[in-house]
Every structure is written in C-alpha cells, then in structure tokens.
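TICKET: design request
STATUS: open
ATTACHED STRUCTURE:
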C-alpha cells in the first residue's frame, strides 16, 4: 500500500520537526510558546504548517489508491510533496524566502494534482 509508505515517511518527518522544537525549547528554556526566540517560532511554524497540509495530502493519496489510480501518480505526487515539505522546513529555519516559495509551490502542486486526478477517476 503506497499511502501507508508515505504515511510512515511523513510521520518520521513529523517526529523530526517535533524534536527540532523540543531541542530549541530546551536550549532556550521555554516551556510554552516561542519565548520571543525567532528560531523557535520558525520551528513551531514549520511543524504547524506540515500538520496543516499533510492530512489532506494523505486523504487524497488514499482516495486515489482506493480508486485504483496508477502507482506512478501516487509516487510522483507523494514524493513531490515530501520534497516540498523538507525544503519548506529548511527555508523557514534558514530564512530563505525564495526556497519557501518553491517549497509551497511543490506542496500546492501535489495537492492540486491529486485533487484533479481524483476527480478525473471519479467521473471516468
């Protein structure tokens, strides 16, 4: 099951983002919020942003796989999304706006492609 593969990979990345926050909280002695530390604020947003988009992607991946969609589309869209999310985390932590724009474009492209492919499969 391809969706299960991507769910596992995304979960591992989610844990990594969580540990980034834990490390920065420990380093800056902050138990709640960002304590006015910009790097902690960026790590919290990278984590939050990942959780805002990833459930939709997984639902769309599962729907396509359930409908018998071609595996290549599952791998391409899931892989593109993963690259986008990794780049997004790096861009937020390194304050690189251009990379952030590219990363969001990859994420939205994945979501858009899966939405269109799922609609096509439904109507065909």
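STATUS: resolved
RESOLUTION: sequence designed for all positions
ATTACHED SEQUENCE:
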């Amino acid at each position: 099951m391809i969706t299960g593969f991507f769910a596992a990979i995304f979960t591992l990345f989610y844990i990594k983002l969580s540990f980034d926050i834990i490390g920065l909280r420990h380093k800056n002695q902050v138990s709640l919020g960002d304590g006015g530390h910009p790097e902690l604020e960026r790590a919290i947003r990278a984590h939050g942003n990942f959780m805002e988009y990833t459930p939709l992607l997984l639902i769309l991946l599962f729907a396509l796989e359930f409908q018998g969609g071609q595996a290549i589309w599952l791998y391409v869209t899931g892989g593109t999304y993963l690259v986008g999310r990794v780049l997004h985390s790096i861009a937020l932590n390194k304050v690189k706006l251009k990379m952030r724009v590219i990363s969001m474009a990859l994420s939205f492209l994945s979501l858009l492609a899966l939405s269109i492919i799922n609609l096509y499969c439904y109507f065909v």
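CLOSING REMARK: The chain has four helices and no strands. The mean pLDDT is 95.
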